[in-house]
Amino acid sequence: MATFLTDLFTSIFTPGPTHSLLVATNVSFAALQIILLLLLILTYSVHFIVLSTLCAGLWWSINWFAAELEVAKRKEKEQDSRARERAQHQQHIRSDDDSGTETEGPAKPTRTADLEPVVRPTPPYESAEGRLRKPRSLASSTGDLSTDSEWDKVEETETHR
Prior knowledge:
Mean pLDDT: 80
Strand content: under 5%
Largest sheet: none
Structural class: mainly alpha
Distance between the termini: 78 Å
Shape: flat
């Protein structure tokens, strides 16, 4: 019992559904169904039938989701093992091809125009007078966008009163 509780506590911090977490979930839902059945017998209220149906649907969906995660894990492991086998097979083929008896074909010529980056000139910035001006960035602004300068102005006018 103590090891189950320890496993349950550590399973909270491990990703995915663990065996101890699924057992605890199933026991909890079974206990809830028993309590809802007892309350239905004692009170004859339709509400407990609805609650029991909702509980059963949630219980089924949790178990279905856990099963789907297990299927996905198995598929992922199979794909990983296939990929490793392919990589080992390719590496084995390459090591067999290193005999040095075969020659490679001529290399394709590359054009230098394809390798050089294309640099486009930036358009000059002109002022209203026709002179070139330096473009302004937000970092170099004088605080036109900030409200701090507005608060400074308000404080200055209040101190002058």
